[in-house]
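Model: You mentioned two targets. I'll fold them one after the other.
Researcher: Yes, keep them separate.
Model: Target one:
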Amino acid sequence: MDFLGLGFGDVKRMNKRQLYYQVLNFGMIVSSALMIWKGLMVVTGSESPIVVVLSGSMEPAFYRGDLLFLTNYQEEPIRAGEIVVFKVEGRDIPIVHRVLKLHERENGTVKFLTKGDNNSVDDRGLYAPGQLWLTKRDVVGRARGFVPYIGVVTILMNDYPKLKYAVLACLGLFVLIHRE
């Protein structure tokens, strides 16, 4: 059975040494990707330096599927109008919204309120129960740039898990079978 010009007969024809080499090659690719991700985390100061916009709440600034590049340098002050990505207790998925209001105290603490550009009300309904303001520790990052619609692939893979597994299986098979 050939799939994209790759056959299982190729795997049968490989000796053990070639097969081990291909498995190690695959492991190197995966570990390289993880090292690049961790390096981006260190350089940007963000636990998630790249995120995908998952809803239309920020239209027309960002659309569903846009890929955002984030930084989260602690020494930079948060300002009204800035677009932040934040996590709320009890929710797994970070939210991308604009800082609407700031509440600064004399002791230097800053609290802020967010709102999606396309939403009619602020985000207090999205925050944890009893939480009225966000703090810097809630921020995952601040939007510094974006690439439109590239993240649609991520959305499709999350919406259709079978597609995700099929793509991953094809990529893994290609790496294992492809000889160079």
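Model: Target two:
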Amino acid sequence: MINQRFNLEDYTLPIIISQEGRDIATQFALRHPKGSKREQVYLNTLAVWSVNCYLEWMQIATELEASDSWNPIIQLCANVADLQVKGVGRLECRPVREKQQMVSIPPEVTIDRIGYVVVRIFDHLKTAEILGFVKTITQEMLPLGQLQPIEGLLVDLHSPQPAEFQIPVRLSLWLRDEWEGLWQSIYRQPAFGLRSSSRSDEDFVQGAKLIDLKMQLGSQSVVLWVALTPETEGRIAVRVRLYPAPQDRYLPPNVELILLSETGDILSEVQSRLQDNYIQLPRFRGTPQEQFSITVRLRDASITERFIF
């Protein structure tokens, strides 16, 4: 049998990191405490910048500033290096240093990604190499030898997933204190700054996710908050709120928070007014394996999160 093993070094793609790219990485890094977080943000930014340059050369439209990796709050909350590909989804761009033979994949980026590109950042920080990609991740440490040639990524990007495709968030895991993707327990992530939570809320399992709407709302982000209370016969009571991001006092007016059934029917909705510091849907209940969705919408722009009990 002919050996068709992929030789990594035969397919690497060199990228010159411009001064602009290094300046942005420095700007992002200096917003965070000294130490490992600064280095993490700096390298992640260079990796995303390099992949963005490659896709621009290939005439594939991206939305760099709409990516979570370009949001300072999400940078602080999670180890993300995503690049939003217009009309397709989020591509994760993971950096490795010289001589590293494996790349670490943080748990928070193992869902809601269309693929994973690995970028080698050289020690002088002026050049990089795109090493290859994989479509899915099943391990926390990925050997570089398992990467596929980057050219295969272009085929995937020209075959976008349906807009409605999304892996639902499994709420039963929250009750075991297990969290996926960018959803986090608010007790572990005080950076969310949920100022309006009352003392009675402490009895609930509470998760939150920062949603970036900056392409529609300038620099505006919002926090989606979901609280769970187990009841009898396996039922779970749910409360859903939308808060402003920590740096903002109020939600933007006319933002809609919508509860949808598994079939897409609107079950309830609420809209923010001027100077609302949060909005909340009526409490509802679900049973195991039942699904629902929450949509955050402003005029023609919307983001939907799917859930399963």
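Researcher: Noted. Anything on target two?
Model: The two ends are 48 Å apart (CA to CA).
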